[in-house]
Amino acid sequence: MIGHFFINDTLENRISYYLIACFLITLPFDHFYSEWLLITFCMHTVISLKKIDFKRLKNKNIWIIASAFFLSLAAVSYSAYKSEGIKDSFQQLGILLFPASLSVSHLNLRKYKISLLKIFAITCTATILYLYADAFHTIYYFHLPWSSLLKKTFINQNFSAPIGLHATYLSMYATLSSSIFFYVYFKNSGGKNLKYILCIAVLFAGLVQLSSRSALIALAVIFLALVPLFLLDGKRKLLFLIISSVVSLLFIFLITRATSFRERVINDFENDLSEYKHPGDFLESRKMRWDLEWELVQQSIFVGYGTGSEKFILKEKYFENKFYRSYLAELNSHNQYLSFLLNTGIIGLILYLFILCYGIATALKNKDFLLMSFLTILVFVSISENILSVTKGVLFYAFFYSFFLFNIPHKISRNKADFKIKRQPKIDLQRL
Asked: Which backbone phi and psi does 60 adopt, to 5 degrees?
């Protein structure tokens, strides 16, 4: 990893590179560091700006990515909770800053794409190893049986607690890191460098330990469908499908045999989609909360209630329906699609779906495995989390969407105007 920090470039570009690298290293940790590195990178980019750089802001990809921020900002105007709306919009400012800064930066993103992605993936792998080391140390210190690693004490939020990061967001990072190692293994190393396989194995183990259902589904789609579709052909595709099927069966066996994993991944999933509630039981399934939220959506379906209103209107609805656990925890919709409906109505949902579909169409057109993997993660995690309501989710969306879109190679124009050939003067043979 140290070798990726030595680049041969101008001082300005080296600073930009190091700031982005440090941002990727700090992303799995407290958002204080990643936020300040984003601000520093933007300031450095502004200082280095030249007049000609402003032409790059015409790139439509910038405004497609940032459109979610502008809609959120506009929806503050009719919100009953404007102060909260301004706070939420400020939290989403990275959705504008990252695409704008990366587009005008003089750093050649294509040249350093793999190096930067490796830095991020290796950081996530090291983070998973640290969490395992911390878990083993805790088991050893308290003289617990080693099988405790497979108990509730060390899975999901309890596993990611030492770094203070929500299990789902760390799972998103680990899933994308797995995709990066798959890409590097099959495309750059020719399938001969086993260290990438070891890193993938560590990340897979961490994802099982984190037990984020939406991230595991995204991983399954990437592992079983996208890798053979985008990265392999011929005999290698068939061999990979056999190996991936065996690995998937082993994962299913582990999850179904270990009680804690089975309860977390299977039983809790069934409970989340259930409407049954035992009298006196404080369990409020996600499906029941979504039903309440849909009732609110129907009352203002076109423009929603305005940015910043989601938490307050949901609290009122929870209290009315005696969802006291959700009320006290001030739970949001835990669904990015529903969140757009509540805050900005059907207009917001259509915009978000357009942003996702635009990226998917671009990935398919350019056969971009990494962009497609990133969007697969967004699509599935958006079902269970408000990605754009949390700083870590905003930074993940803003940076990687911008980074992957700006790394799409430009195709050579085939217009006749690009191939005009100047006529050579006729030679008078008689004069010769």
From this structure: -65, -25
Digit-coded pLDDT (tens) for 391-403:
999 999 999 999 9
The dihedral through the CA atoms of 357, 72, 62, 402 has a sign that is: negative
Residues 6+ apart with CB under 8 A from 75: 85, 303, 304, 306, 307, 343, 344, 348
Rounded to an integer, what distance in angstroms lies between the CA atom of residue 216 and that of residue 374? 14
**Contacts of residue 325, Cβ cutoff 8 Å, sequence gap at least 6:** 282, 283, 284
Report the alpha-carbon distance of residue 148 to residue 135 in Å, rounded: 9
Instruction: Name every residue whose Cβ is closer than 8 Å to that of residue 31 and which is 6 or more positions away in sequence.
Output: 391, 392, 395
Q: Span 183-194, mean pLDDT?
A: 79
Alpha-carbon gap, residue 336 to 263, rounded angstroms = 25
pTM of the model: 0.90
Asked if residue 102 lies in contact with residue 403, where contact means CB atoms within 8 angstroms, the answer is: yes
Which is more confidently placed, 252 or 38? 38
